[in-house]
């Protein structure tokens, strides 16, 4: 095997991003495939037969510097839907698409592989996820079952990798899999299951999780050494790689391809591109520049606040005022955590004191709605990029999207705003907006406040009158799309920024769930994005 070849396929680079990290949505997979030449192996998130939502948040925590513990819970859209999504993207020919799959027995694994067969260059068998009761490591414990699973997927005729758990007997698992005809090995999956607590409470909703990143580097090196003693098959390594030194050390013990996952925490897409480029040149020239891109300060630690006021504004809307301030910039957001109840992201309506506008949607926000004065609430953050605009700005907000806009009004001199909601009760903080904005236009669907109709109905009129240089939109996707369309007729599209409620679950770009249709991850690339990024 030459440097940039895997089996008979020429690939553009020897790097990969391991399963379940960053490129978990196909839009991100496609973007990375087309924009990062150093990545030659594209590994998908683990796909099962049926759709799975996965665990409720928190799904990830910072375990130690550059190390994480996660229990995402194998969330995936199911094999059929994933095949449909893969059929809509373009992956260049010089990439090896390794589809990670899981199941509970050989029949299930085979069915998933058959469903995804047309798109795969190879399959990676996830028999190593350490925090599931039904899949992953519990399957990997049974060596004969591993053999049967490997054999049934191998017989489909595409190269099969098994992904090794460092928590089981590595040698035995590999022997069974080699007998079954596997083509390669991916190692290692996360260490665990382990428990991680804060203030005496388990952080992950699943309680137990798997450890990744720097904390498992030594374990990874030990595993690869053991694996190399028993086989010459290609090895894709992942486990705590941060820079060129780690890659060299893994190479020394026998790895062929190099997956970097946890080290990408907090990096936006541009930084990931630069990171891989630097890593590659570091290896050629003996430099050590890639590590400069690692983000040490991720704001993952929880801070304990207390509720000062919980004001009910409407049946499904309330305002939480906390007992302290938060240093934050317009455009950023936080996660609120109630131990053993859950965690969700929220915009910062106001930061002095910290104030959150919350709509009751599900069980977690229902729990928040019950909080009383003095009750504790844990927060982590802020996340997302501060958005700085310098010039006349029009803020356009609908529903709870209003919450992301007030800090812009408070911090800038020349802002105008159009805010809309169903009725007057759903339009909070109006007095504050009025005093911070040069002009405020309101819209309600029932006509109780401002004009009767949608926030976008009179948008063009307001734009013509106020002549903004920038527009900042936040609200439900249909509102934002209409706003962009109308604004683009009058304002340079490069100066229109929008934030839509994407499914943000980790805040540091690792889980990839907040990907836009263009492959940007809202939490690290936004949250306010340009039109061509949404
Ligand atoms: C958020 C997150 C999600 C993951 N999801 C999966 C997964 O779905 N399937 C899998 O085989 N491994 C999964 N892993 C494990 C990684 O693929 C990888 O084996 C591990 O993180 C070690 O690499 P690293 O130290 O570079 O992160 C996940 C890891 C993280 C941090």
Describe this structure in a few short sentences.
Residues 300-389 form the FAD-binding FR-type domain. This protein has 534 residues and is α/β, with parallel strands linked by helices.
Write the layout of secondary structure elements.
Elements lengths: L4 E2 L2 E2 L4 E3 L8 H10 L3 E5 L16 E5 L2 E4 L8 H8 L9 E6 L4 H11 L5 E5 L10 H4 L2 H12 L5 E5 L5 H10 L4 E4 L3 E5 L1 E2 L2 E2 L5 E6 L3 H14 L4 E4 L5 H9 L4 E3 L9 H17 L17 E12 L2 E6 L10 E6 L3 E6 L2 E2 L2 E6 L3 H7 L6 E8 L9 E6 L7 H6 L3 E7 L8 H7 L2 E6 L6 E2 L6 H8 L3 E6 L1 H11 L8 E5 L21 H4 L3 E2 L4
Parallel strand pairs: 3-4, 3-16, 4-7, 7-8, 8-9, 9-10, 10-15, 15-16, 24-25, 24-28, 25-26, 26-27, 28-29
Antiparallel strand pairs: 1-2, 5-6, 6-14, 11-14, 12-13, 17-18, 17-23, 18-22, 19-20, 19-23, 21-22, 29-30
Protein name: Dihydroorotate dehydrogenase
InterPro entries: Aldolase_TIM, Dihydroorotate_DH_cat, FAD-bd_FR_type, FNR_nucleotide-bd, OxRdtase_FAD/NAD-bd, PyrK_electron_transfer, Riboflavin_synthase-like_b-brl
GO molecular function: oxidoreductase activity, acting on the CH-CH group of donors
